[in-house]
Request: fold
Amino acid sequence: MTEEKQHRDESSYRGKICKCLLCDGILHYVLLLKPTPLANELLLEKEEQFSFPLNLMKCSSCSHLQLDYMVNPKKLYQHYLYCSDTSASNREYFKSYAEDMIKQFDPKKVLDIASNDGLFLSYFKERGIKVCGVDPAQNIAHAACEKGIDTYPEFFDETLAGQMLCTRGKFDLITCNNAFAHNADLRPIVKGVEILLEDNGSFVFEVSYAMRLLEKGLFDLIYHEHMHHHHIKPLYDFLDKLGLRIYDAEERPTHGGSIRIYACKKESPLQPSDECRDLMFKEGKNFERLVSEFPIKIENNRGDLIALMEGIKSEGKTISILGFPAKATTLAYYFETDHTIIDDVFDDNVLKQGRWTPGGEWKVRPTSDIRERKPDYLLILAWNYADALIKTHRETVKGWGGKFIIPLPEMKVVE
Ligand SMILES: [Zn+2]
Reply:
């Protein structure tokens, strides 16, 4: 590794987190995973990459789940390869989400934090609602602006919120989807929301739900960008200290199980709904048990998948990966899959094609190459899109008797 590169990698590493990111409580280990390179760092040229520690911790005070190492967010997000607008199911999801928000709130002005390529906001804009986005990935924020979605290419915090208040005023709906897990320090975001939210406005955000992650053993959702794995109770107390109150919560099917949380200003008369109270009650009852069962669940799944793949290889057959989402890196490292087991990686995302997967094991090929490579098995690491992926590729692989392997939540082989 060159001196310059060594310096670049070390400066991207922020070091160990010693206390709870929400309440400053003491942290305990839940799960030790293998160190991996950054899940979205797919390089054009093959070169050595720094592997960062990856461990799941639990706070002894508020029981919030989080990582114990922080990577410099500038390294993680300033040139990001994830675009919302790359799959039909994403477009469908955000469209119905936006329609739901319009029906519930009839908003006049919407701010989306971590707005990515502006897909979600575009559905408000086409209904004549004023929109504004903020996203630190400069390449993607610029692309959103070019599509007509006004987007600040910055990290959202109370300083930016103060400037926006002068130029744009307050918003009656502020949203934040799957990004509330991504920032180590959530205080600047919440303080910014408090500044820009109308008194009777709502702050709505979606995060992967830790209860489902634990219950289904979805350990591949743990990677460096996902600093937090939320459940409602710790968030309730955290927001409460910063002037917001969670008044509703509902489970969503995305990413193996997510939760949509609704918060208002504390001065608002809105109080937690029955559904919200019920979810928190179930958390209190089951959380500790699920935490203690989590490592065993993953080891069992690992054993099953490795045995299946070794059996396939012993028959002289080939396995390729179909879809290489961010979570694929955690799974590939933990299950110690390499090019001796997996021959190729295919992905629809043109931003990933022609690049090396983190760690440099495979070069990502377009899915149109599947026909030429004829893999006997396609391992679907984007398992949350398994149905759509199988539907798209079933006819192609049928020609040579190809099958699909879905590793999680329960390993299964599909013809
Ligand atoms: Zn805590």
In short: The mean pLDDT is 91. The CA atoms of residues 34 and 333 lie 6 Å apart. Residues 20, 22-23, 25, 59, 61-62, 64, 234 surround zinc ion (CB under 6 Å).
